[in-house]
């Protein structure tokens, strides 16, 4: 496997030269005060060798990246029955859009938009004894890192302003696709989104999607067909209504969050995470998108 350090050093230097770093998410008050000049990147290869630069140790709110983890946990617990509750098609709409929900009888298009992740949250609540605690332990276990935690301030901030999520949850509930109390489901959902991790921690979690369902400690979390399906969903649905652009420019399955994080992977090769809080107009990290395009273009490493 090649030495990624020179290329990621170049990427950090390139991001410093960019004048337009995007705009920090303002609709979640706790995220609006983050320094837009922050940038971190970390690569973890299949041999467990780590390459990092910039603010790769600094924790941030992973937001929608957590949807992949909740999907992974739910899929491992209930298997193919999950797809009776949520679809696998790209929505083509912003992550918090509601129009398709009514047309499709409360079945979200995919598990990586807000409505889909709310249904996944409902599934986990129905199958876990202590949902929030058990989910956090699941994430900590994959990363082998007990310092990963919820950010209670961010969770509370999202709860105060998450009107569209409440609307989506009640609409889903009206079609019978939400089994638990809306407040309980959204409390779990907001906490999952609030998880704080660094780029270095994120690549350790997403290592399982790069390494056939096995974490760095070689514990198995997913069957190989499940890994294939989750990676496929990340490729087609992982970047809101910019998934096609990400596949075109970067060519890797991955997931973004409005906290500025992006994580992507090349199966059996490497996992990469970037963090830069300034977002483009589609809600994805502006510098993160640029960095990952440069990474795959300069190295020639993508799934295509």
From TrEMBL:
Reported EC number(s) for this entry are 3.5.1.2
State the protein's name.
Answer: Glutaminase
Quaternary organization: Homotetramer.
Kindly list the biological process annotations in GO that this record carries. Answer: glutamate biosynthetic process; L-glutamine catabolic process
Record's keyword annotation contains Transcription = no
Catalytic activity reported: L-glutamine + H2O = L-glutamate + NH4(+)
- Extract the Gene3D superfamilies matched here: DD-peptidase/beta-lactamase superfamily
Instruction: List ligand-binding residues for substrate.
Output: 64, 114, 158, 165, 189, 240, 258
GO terms assigned for molecular function: glutaminase activity
EC category name: hydrolase
Keywords assigned by UniProt, alphabetized: Acetylation, Hydrolase
Indicate whether Transmembrane appears among the record's keywords: no
Gene responsible for this protein? glsA
Source species: Flagellimonas aquimarina
């Amino acid at each position: 496997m090649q030495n990624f350090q020179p290329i990621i050093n170049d990427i950090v230097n390139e991001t410093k030269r960019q004048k337009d770093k995007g705009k920090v998410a303002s609709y979640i008050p706790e995220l609006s005060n983050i320094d837009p000049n922050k940038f971190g990147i970390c690569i973890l290869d299949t041999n467990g060798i780590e390459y990092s630069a910039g603010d790769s140790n600094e924790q941030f709110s992973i937001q929608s990246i957590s949807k992949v983890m909740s999907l992974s946990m739910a899929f491992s617990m209930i298997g193919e029955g999950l797809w009776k509750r949520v679809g696998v098609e790209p929505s083509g709409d912003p992550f918090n859009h509601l129009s398709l929900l009514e047309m499709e009888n409360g079945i979200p298009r995919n598990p990586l938009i807000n409505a889909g992740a709310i249904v996944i949250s409902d599934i986990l609540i129905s199958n876990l004894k202590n949902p929030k605690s058990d989910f956090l332990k699941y994430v900590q276990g994959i990363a082998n890192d007990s310092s990963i935690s919820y950010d209670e301030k961010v969770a509370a901030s999202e709860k105060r302003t998450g009107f569209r999520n409440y609307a989506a949850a009640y609409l889903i509930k009206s079609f019978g696709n939400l089994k638990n109390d809306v407040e309980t489901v959204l409390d779990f959902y907001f906490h999952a989104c609030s998880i704080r991790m660094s780029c270095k921690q994120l690549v350790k979690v997403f290592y399982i999607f790069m390494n056939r369902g096995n974490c760095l400690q070689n514990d198995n979390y997913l069957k190989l067909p499940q890994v294939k399906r989750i990676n496929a969903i990340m490729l087609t649905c992982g970047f809101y209504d910019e998934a096609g652009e990400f596949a075109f420019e970067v060519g890797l399955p991955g997931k973004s969050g409005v906290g500025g994080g992006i994580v992507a992977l090349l199966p059996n090769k490497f996992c990469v995470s970037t963090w830069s809080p300034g977002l483009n107009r589609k809600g994805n990290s502006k510098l993160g998108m640029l960095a990952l395009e440069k990474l795959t273009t300069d190295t020639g490493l993508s799934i295509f």
